[in-house]
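To assess whether ligand presence alters the predicted conformation, the chain was also submitted together with zinc ion. Input:
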Amino acid sequence: MDRVAVLPHVVRRAERLIFSGENTRACRLLAHALADIDPITARPDARLIEAAICYAETLSFEWDIPDRAELQLTWVRYAETAALTCYGRSSQLWQRAAGFYARVCATQGLTFDAVAVLQRTLAAYRTYGPPDRIPEVRGQLAAALHDDGQCAEARTEIHDAWHTWLRTRARIRARSPHVGGQLLTTYASILAGCGQTSDARALLRDHADLVTAEANTSREAAALVAAVQIAMTERDHRPVCTARPAPAVQAPTSTPLPSQRWQVWETLLLKSHPTPSTPLDQRLYRRGSPLPDWS
Ligand SMILES: [Zn+2]
């Protein structure tokens, strides 16, 4: 039996180990099974795609492996490319591989690649569905554009995604209750990152309940996660921001996050009482951009 033929059995064993909380053993098992296969030259194969995704996922939690980042990127890139060749953009396997590839690119600072794969993913969801995934992917695309320094495009994308979600949330929210909070946090992060702090604060004040009403998370924990994300974007975005002048001295991203900064956002989220009548659209678009037609 050749190396590829045994992979489905290896993946099932690895999945059982992961389910039992033994990620490191699963990762070693997959690494051994894939040791003689080069992801750069390997031919597209469904069995190898499944193993590649599973291996790349286990690598997410194995920080002690020296070449972890390179291994993860190479295998998930193989999975995305091979799944596209074998099954096309309508397949769930390609959509899963593409979503994971985008997350790995974003984590590793490959912002241009993250934007490109998310644009392909969004186009696929719009063509083949499911439509419920579109708001979430639009939020991810907006964040990737922002990370890439395409600030105007990021703001247009998140503004449209957010208002589309607000219009359609009665239908979508039942199946994806977390998406509204994610979009809100991404929107506030983009505004705060580009220096539009008062607009970010106004947005959160008006809709804080979407973040703090997460079904499976305590109110305090949900507010803390959102606050840290916003504060991190404030700290890290400045060097690539194209919406305002570059700073004279750029703080390295390894700088510890000042606790008072995320505490400001956390307090705002926990103490806000929504006032839906606030004409937020006019404030957010007051800098010369035309107000989009949401009809
Ligand atoms: Zn910016």
